Amino acid sequence: MKLQFKSSEQGSLGSICAKRIYRPHVGGDWHFHKEFEIIYFLKGHGMRIVGDHISNFQKGELVLVGEWLPHLWRNDEGGLEAVATDFIVIKFTRMFGGVDLFSIPELLHIKALLKEADQGLLFSKKTRKSVHEDLLKLAEAESSEKLILLLSVLQKLVVSKEYQTLSGPNFSLPKEVAGENRLHKVINHISANFARDIKLNDIAEIAAMTPPAFCRFFKTRTNKTFSLFLNEVRISKACQLLINGEAAINQICYDVGFSSLTNFNRTFKSFKGISPSSYRDSYSNFRQHNFKEVS
Question: Keywords for this entry (predicted)?
Answer without folding.
Answer: DNA-binding, Transcription, Transcription regulation
